[in-house]
Amino acid sequence: MDYALFRAQEGKKHLDAKPLKGFMGTGVLEIVDDYDGDTYRAVYTVKLEGVVYVLHAFQKKSKRGAATPKQEIDL
Tens digit of pLDDT for each residue in 41-67? Predict the structure, then answer.
């Protein structure tokens, strides 16, 4: 996840970064990463070259598939 955010600071997009569903065309991207059997997500946007705004980072705990929980999207 750290490397993907670093690539964003360089003005590049990491292969694992993808537009966040429901926010298409807004420049909001998400990175999904697994660690020690758990899944984590970081949501970020790049508004100015070289500046990355991490909007939210959380451990995914959805009990229904791969969908991001609604409460996390609302936040």
Answer: 899 998 766 688 888 888 877 666 666
Buried b / exposed e along 16-31 (16+ C-beta atoms within 10 A): ebeebeeeeeeebbbb
DSSP character string of the chain: -HHHHHHHHTT---TT-EEPTT-TTTTEEEEEEEETTEEEEEEEEEEETTEEEEEEEEEE--SSTTPPPHHHHH-
Query: What are the φ/ψ torsions at residue 61 (nearest 5 degrees)?
Result: -130, 20
Encoded tokens for 58: 């959380």
Tell me what pLDDT residue 30 has.
Answer: 92
